[in-house]
Amino acid sequence: MGLISNRVQRNEIKPGDHIYTYRAVFAYSHHGIFVGGSKVVHFTRVVNESYNHTTECPTFPDCGFRQPNSGVVLSCLSCFLRNASLYCFEYGVAPSVFIAKVRGGTCTTAPSDSSDTVVHRTMFLLQKGFGNYDVFQNNCEDFALYCKTGLLTVDRLGVGRSGQASSVIGAPLAALLSSPLKLLLPSPVGVATVTAGMYCISRYATDIGVRTDVVKVAVEDLAGNF
């Protein structure tokens, strides 16, 4: 993996890895935890509250399994990817590397826990759920980040841990913060440089590796947070 892309091959991932793929022509990414045996556990919006387990996967009968009214789903790797490319999320990256990767939702400065701990959290949440899906506060990336680190945000009204969501919020924030400087920087290049810098700073400030509003929560105690 490098600064340009975190793309990997299927034989390169191992249980406990945080993986993702892009949807809608790279408009957004979908995240999950690889648990081995060509299976991925991921978090989605609950569409049908009266859900009963069914599968259209011809290879794995348990593909699509989830508990009633839960958005945490077990899928096979092929169904998770939907013929798209596979990427691996990076943990414990240096601040310079984090900032250099302009697109959010690809890495964090926070370290990952052991693979055994990650898989344990993931399989526990497959049975117990992960609360209500919210695109900004509790999405698929938030789920994967928690499984990897055990970290939750204290302020449930603010932005979640998702770097992808932070990027969406950070872009207009960067433009707003840089707007007073336009009088001092008449050059379009200068304005663009400042805006880009403020965007990177705002995105870095919301990373779970540097935030002060995150706490470590045992997965067995997680139900009370939702």
TrEMBL record:
Pfam families: LRAT (PF04970). It comes from the Eukaryota. PROSITE patterns: LRAT. Residues 20-156 form the LRAT domain. This is LRAT domain-containing protein. It comes from Erythranthe guttata (Yellow monkey flower).
